[in-house]
């Protein structure tokens, strides 16, 4: 093996072993922190109520109330049902 080639291979291996090849181009100025992701237990049921305003074009706005029922199958998959009720009148249109 050529003497210059073997020196280059040894130098490259030394740089890779010390981590000099994997230096960052931009060094972050803030320290990293641990982030805890919320973990829902599987088969968890969530129940909730909501209220708001339902606006229909040319018929004004009316209050709406409802309930939600959710079922967490796993941490990533869930099913949710929502039922709401509002009363809309065409009196503003006339």
Protein architecture, described:
The protein is 17% helix and 37% strand. It is elongated and about 70 Å long. It has one helix at 3-18, and strands at 44-56, 60-72, 78-86. With 94 residues, it is of the alpha+beta class. Mean pLDDT is 76; it is low at 5-10. It contains one helix and three strands, in the order αβββ. A three-stranded antiparallel β-sheet has the order 1-2-3, with no helix packed on it. β1 and β2 form a beta hairpin.
Strand and helix layout:
Blueprint: H1 3-18, E1 44-56, E2 60-72, E3 78-86
Keywords:
alpha+beta, 1 helix, 37% strand
Quick overview:
With 94 residues, the protein is α+β, with helices and mostly antiparallel strands.
Instruction: Classify the secondary structure makeup into a structural class.
Output: alpha+beta
From N to C, what is the helix and strand string?
Answer: HEEE
| Approximate strand percentage | 35-45%
Q: Give me the count of strands.
A: 3
Enumerate the spans where pLDDT stays under 50 for 5 or more consecutive residues: 5-10
**Helicity range:** 10-25%
Give the end-to-end Cα distance, rounded to a whole number of Å. Answer: 96 Å
Biggest sheet: strand arrangement: 1-2-3
Count of alpha and pi helical runs: 1
Mean pLDDT score, rounded? Answer: 76
Shape: elongated
Largest sheet: 3 strands, antiparallel
Radius of gyration: 31 Å
């Amino acid at each position: 093996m050529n003497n210059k080639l073997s020196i280059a291979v040894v130098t490259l291996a030394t740089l890779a072993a010390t981590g000099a090849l994997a230096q960052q181009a931009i060094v972050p100025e803030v320290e990293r922190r641990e982030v805890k992701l919320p973990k829902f237990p599987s088969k968890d049921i969530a129940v909730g109520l909501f209220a708001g305003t339902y606006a229909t074009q040319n018929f004004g706005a009316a209050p709406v109330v409802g309930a939600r029922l959710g079922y967490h199958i796993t941490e990533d998959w869930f099913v949710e049902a929502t039922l709401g009720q509002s009363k809309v009148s065409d009196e503003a249109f006339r």
